[in-house]
């Protein structure tokens, strides 16, 4: 992947995660499907960027972030399936 494209992808991923964080702190009621999707997509985009600009600490953080977002999505889907 082109390093400039990797940077752009990483910036979009970072922006999505900042939007998710701001949303969770400013919304009167949090839609956890939206919150976790933003975090998952953001972390996956950052992982893609880190494949070009590798940093172990950042890669591990994004992998854990993705796992947490996936667990959050599973919880949302299980809750909605029961309703």
TrEMBL record:
This is CBU-0592-like domain-containing protein. InterPro entries: CBU_0592-like (IPR058058). Pfam families: CBU_0592 (PF26604). Signal peptide: none annotated. The keyword Membrane applies. The keyword Nucleotide-binding does not apply. The chain crosses the membrane at residues 32-52, 59-78. Coiled coil: none annotated. Residues 6-80 form the CBU-0592-like domain. Keywords: Membrane, Transmembrane, Transmembrane helix. NCBIfam families: CBU_0592_membra.
């Amino acid at each position: 992947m082109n390093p400039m494209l990797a940077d752009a992808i990483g910036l979009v991923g970072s922006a999505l995660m900042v939007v998710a964080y701001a949303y969770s702190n400013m919304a009167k009621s949090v839609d956890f499907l939206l919150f976790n999707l933003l975090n998952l997509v953001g972390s996956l985009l950052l992982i893609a960027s880190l494949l070009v600009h590798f940093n172990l600490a950042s890669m591990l953080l994004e992998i854990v972030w993705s796992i947490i977002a996936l667990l959050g999505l599973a919880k949302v889907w299980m809750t909605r399936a029961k309703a």
